[in-house]
Amino acid sequence: MTLEEIESYREKVLQIMFDVQVTIYNAKIIGNTSTEDEDWVKDHPFFRHYFSQMKFIAVIQLAKLLSQSDNQKLNFQKFLKRLQSEKLPEIKSASGKEVIEDKIEFYSKHQLMKLEEDINAAIERHKSDIKKLNDARDKVFAHSDPNFKEGFISWPAIESLSELVHFIYNKISGDFTNTEFMFPNKRTWSPEWVIEKAASTRPKRPRK
């Protein structure tokens, strides 16, 4: 596996994490009660539709990283298994040149096995929520199963899985590049400003 392939994988995971984090943040903004005028805005069909679509986004994106389905190519455990099959530390750039030490941390197979053990243990602790995630993806969003009667995945469960993904990303990123990622202020990607401005335009009802 080349350094470019590892970097490409990290970038794809980072984009998924970003989508999920922003989705959760916005779901809280739209789903939680605020002022009477802001709730009036959030009751608009656009926001009600957006709120229903946000769970779809979160489920589909998280499943890319946590589902063991054959068509989920970005799954964390599949990525680790591929690393296990490579001859470490012989990870080179695509040009075949040696990778400079400050760009990637080389480590032994034993260290890679420890990384895999830590990640598998974290996934095991969330197996109940991951099953709900897979059911939501396979039986509700990606395919409709009329016989599906189980409880639907909750927003707290989605948020818990988002934190799991963040943890795993930082474990992998920390081992390979000695870095961690912290999310920026998500208000930039939020409809809060629009809701606040629209609420200020609500016609005032005459006092009795």
Explain what you see.
- By secondary structure, this protein is an all-alpha fold.
- It has one domain (3-199).
- Helix content is 63%, strand content 0%.
- The protein is built from 8 helices and no strands.
- The chain has helices at 3-31, 36-42, 45-66, 76-85, 109-125, 127-141, 155-177, 192-199.
- α3 packs across α6 (127-141) and α4 runs antiparallel to α5 (109-125).
- The N and C termini lie far apart (73 Å).
- Residues 89-94 and 97-104 have low confidence and may be disordered.
Strand content range: under 5%
Low-confidence stretches: 89-94, 97-104
Q: In whole angstroms, how far apart are the ends?
A: 73 Å
Number of domains: 1
Helix content: 55-70%
Pairing-aware structural class of the strands and helices? mainly alpha
Order of helices and strands: HHHHHHHH
How is the biggest beta sheet arranged? none
Radius of gyration: 21 Å
Number of DSSP helical runs? 8
Question: How many E strands?
Answer: 0
Q: Quick check: average pLDDT?
A: 82
What characteristic shape results from the CA principal axes? elongated
